[in-house]
Design goal:
Layout: E1 2-3, H1 10-13, H2 30-42, H3 46-51, E2 61-63, H4 68-78, E3 82-87, E4 91-97, H5 98-104, E5 125-127, H6 133-143, E6 147-151, E7 169-174, H7 175-185, H8 187-190, H9 211-215, H10 219-227, E8 233-237, H11 244-254, E9 258-262, E10 268-273, H12 274-282, H13 293-296, E11 301-302, E12 304-305, H14 310-319, E13 324-328, E14 334-339, H15 340-348, E15 355-358, E16 374-375, E17 407-408
Parallel strand pairs: 1-11, 2-3, 5-6, 8-9, 12-13
Antiparallel strand pairs: 3-4, 5-15, 6-7, 8-17, 9-10, 13-14, 15-16
Pfam family, one: CBS
Region (Disordered): 189-212, 369-413
Biased composition (Polar residues): 191-202
Length: 413
């Protein structure tokens, strides 16, 4: 079922004066976010604290030698997308995310016998609380990551390029956490009727397209920018009976986080994401080679309109519990899919990425005695590793080989 936004004032919004610039920059810092959370947390009793969403806790961790299935179970139970990986005597040595599980665990492997250290990302960026949320988003966009670790400023000297002592860790923030903070800070601007989507073509006479409409940043224009690089939508039809194993293989190959489930035309019937893979397949230990994608997908899909403004896209991405948003035209036909990262990329603008501390591959070389603050970039490699391909958290290079499942061209909005 495709959910449509029911906004009483939508018709009014689309006939009022238009304001087309991107949302303004926020000066809120990561420390501001954490201070507010901690303030709320300390006012609650123990029982209420235990019922809070995990975002209020400092961070969730798992041992490097724990099984992948244990990691999956913990992420599902706590409703989080990442776990900090620790090792006795080393402290924090990496991070394991939903994308790591999707990309590095084949559907026929025994998750009980596969260890977290075999799939974890060894590169995690640590920042201090003085980092602004705009800098944090710009950094995530540049490095193609979705999680940042926050360290205690007073313990910054103890952080090295090899590991982070557990006591130096303060919190882990996801890209959704930071986008939510941005939307909260800019709520009045993002929900201002004057920042609504431009007038649709049905509301204009032929040739009556103003200069401001042409310059408007809409979901359609975000899709055109995205499709300059990826001119397709990964999807499967309900009647195709594609198994989860096939869908996951194509998601990994294309570096996509979601597969659309369609009817015989262009109408959306559901969406299968990496979160669905964890919660509906791996956690209950179902066989991905037997389970159909249409039976494991999320049926209630929240969509964006192709003429929605950037302000609307930002607000919806921040407040809805989704990472991928199908974009539909006036006929409810799909024209593309926007991810949270696609929207963040647009609002970052010219914001300069911050500096931070990269964790190096563990089991590599002795921990240095002093901390070294480095510009955000890939860690230096040893000579022995110089020719090995580099990988960052949640990023990989998709192959150019054509997939065997149905891959439909994206319609230009």
């Amino acid at each position: 079922m495709l959910l449509s936004r029911r906004c009483i004032s939508m018709g009014l919004l689309r006939t009022q004066a238009r304001f087309y610039s991107a949302p303004t920059i926020s000066n809120v810092t990561v420390g501001d976010i954490l201070s507010e959370r901690e303030k709320v947390f300390t006012t609650l009793d123990a029982a209420s604290q235990g019922e809070l969403h995990p975002h209020f806790e400092q961070w969730q961790s798992i041992r490097h030698d724990a099984s992948v299935h244990n990691a999956v179970s913990l992420m599902v139970q706590r409703n989080i997308g990442s776990l900090i990986v620790t090792q006795e005597g080393q402290g924090v040595v990496g991070i394991v995310t939903e994308r790591d599980v999707l990309n590095k665990v084949t559907t026929d492997e025994d998750h009980e016998n596969l260890a977290v250290k075999d799939i974890m990302s060894k590169h995690i960026l640590c920042v201090d609380p003085s980092t602004t949320i705009m800098e944090a988003l710009a950094t995530m966009n540049k490095e193609k990551i979705r999680h940042l670790a926050v360290i205690h400023t007073e313990l910054k000297e103890t952080v090295s390029k090899d590991s982070v002592p557990i006591e130096a860790m303060r919190c882990v923030l996801s890209i959704k956490d930071i986008l939510k903070a941005y939307a909260e800070d800019k709520k009045q601007e993002l929900t201002d009727p004057n920042n609504a989507a431009p007038i649709t073509n049905t509301e204009k006479t032929e040739g009556d397209e103003s200069k401001s409409d042409v310059n408007a940043v809409t979901a359609a224009k975000l899709l055109r920018k995205k499709h300059d690089k990826i001119n397709l939508i990964l999807n499967t039809r309900v009647d195709d009976n594609v198994h989860v194993a096939e869908a996951v293989a194509e998601m990994v190959k294309r570096n996509f986080g979601a597969v659309m489930v369609m009817d015989d035309g262009k109408k959306i019937k559901g969406i299968f994401t990496e979160r669905d893979y964890l919660t509906k397949v791996l956690h209950p230990k179902l066989d991905a080679r037997e389970l159909l994608t249409k039976d494991a997908c999320t049926r209630n899909v929240w969509s964006l309109k192709s003429d929605d403004s950037l302000h609307t896209c930002v607000f919806e991405a921040a407040t809805r519990n989704y990472h991928h948003f199908p974009v539909v035209d006036s006929k409810e036909d799909i024209v593309g899919v926007l991810s949270v990262k696609d929207i963040v990329r647009e609002i970052c603008g010219e914001t300069k990425p911050t500096t931070g501390f990269w964790l190096m591959e563990y089991f590599k070389k002795p921990k240095s005695t002093t901390a070294e603050k480095v510009e955000v970039k890939q860690p230096e490699e040893t000579k022995a590793e110089a020719n090995e391909p580099k990988k960052t958290e949640e990023s990989s290079t998709p192959t150019t080989e054509e997939p065997k499942t149905d891959v439909s061209p994206a319609k230009n909005p």
